């Protein structure tokens, strides 16, 4: 599976450097760093599109990879980007805090991060089976619409305390943990559906 | 043990049907898979690698059922070149090496770069900037660099100039010097196959017309040139195909069914295939 992850990384890194530039720019802007986490959830869509265009998906089927590995690699790639953005986001916020640009405390801001990461994970959980089922080309409109819709819902619920550099959601810790649990269960279900779709697409 | 065994394999795609495909490739041999566009060559290769599902029949590669869990291990020992070189276009040969190193347990980095050098492939050039021939050569280099026992090549030499083709054919011949190494190669260029193949399989519209030793084909079939009147004396069961030019007839015949006294010439593989395809049309 390392080969698949490396292929995705090399492809996306060479093909769409602009993605990473955008992610970095968003991470550096305190009120916009959460966009970067969402962009992480959209990168697998782009990787899928490139796979379809180059025909890599056909090649992968004759290589020593199981269906599970092919499916898992796409999820893991998405998780790494979402997680990487979130961690980098926290580090940058701490740096701002250390440089006395903006105060930041993860103890206060963790709720916001959990909600953002969970929302991005939900985007992954919904998009992946759709891509494994019908491909990116046919479902581009749905994938874009769904991802933007989730971003808008989250964006409208978020209130930024720029003076503290934190993101606030007016939700209790219990609700936030429930959202985390639901998004994790969704991942499990999504992976299983994607595996079925991938195998079904073996004509 | 056979390198490839396909028994009564069936596969349908809408109007296309591959029925009762039986194909056996002994170890240490090269088999050429011939057929017109849409005959089912690529489908047969996809079926072999379990990249598409068969509807009926059995397929074994290197003695292992290709639907069993053990087939994953067998894939390590099969070098495949598909009809198109499906590497992402932004990658170069160095990237391909890095990916394959993490894909195949037996990946031989030095061997891969030796092939890259031999094929004059620019290591740093992006895949999209390669010519079709270069792309195919890179795919072949990748297929050869993980110590495969079986090479499955789908139109691997098409798009290459005659010199490069000759070079590759020598390479495939060299590959089968080891007795447990085998090659299945599909191609439109029958002259290439005639040079290197031990066996020839001919697919026509999803049906296997023959799968025979190349030398046996020359023994079984022959070409006969006769006048129109003489042609009437030839038993119908001996005639596989006829080409009429108005004054005389050229026929593909089965030698053993021919009456004595007729001079039957040697039939090339291309002749045999063309006559059969014409009659089966």
Order of helices and strands of chain B: EEEHEEHEHHHEHEHEEHEHEEEH
Number of domains of chain A: 1
Summarize the largest interface: chains and residue counts.
A-B, 25 and 29 residues
- CATH topology type of the largest domain in chain B: Rossmann fold
What shape does the CA trace of chain A take? globular
- Please state roughly what percent of the residues of chain A sit in beta strands, choosing from under 5%, 5-15%, 15-25%, 25-35%, 35-45% or over 45%: under 5%
In short:
Chain A has helices spanning 2-15, 17-28, 33-54, 56-61, 67-98, 106-134, 136-157, 173-200; strands at residues 159-161, 166-168. By secondary structure, chain A is mainly α.
Task: Write a concise keyword list for the protein shown above.
heterodimer, A: 203 residues, mainly alpha, two-stranded antiparallel sheet, 8 helices, 81% helix, globular, B: 281 residues, alpha/beta, Rossmann fold, 2 domains, 6-stranded mixed beta sheet, 4-stranded antiparallel beta sheet, 14 strands, elongated
Structural commentary:
The complex is a heterodimer of chains A (203) and B (281). Chain A is mainly α and 203 residues long. Chain A has one domain (2-200). Helix content of chain A is 81%, strand content 3%. Chain A has 8 helices and 2 strands. In chain A, strands 1-2 form a two-stranded antiparallel sheet. The longest helix of chain A is centred in the middle third of the chain and has 32 residues, at 67-98. Mean pLDDT of chain A is 82; it is low at 161-165. Chain B has 281 residues and is an alpha/beta fold. Chain B has 2 domains: 2-213, 3-Layer(aba) Sandwich (Rossmann fold); 217-280, no CATH class. Chain B has helices spanning 41-48, 71-75, 93-101, 109-118, 132-144, 162-175, 190-196, 214-220, 228-231, 269-280, and strands at 2-13, 16-26, 30-34, 56-61, 64-65, 78-81, 150-154, 182-186, 199-204, 207-213, 221-227, 239-244, 248-254, 265-266. In chain B, helix 4 runs antiparallel to helix 5. The interface between A and B is medium-sized, with 25 and 29 residues.
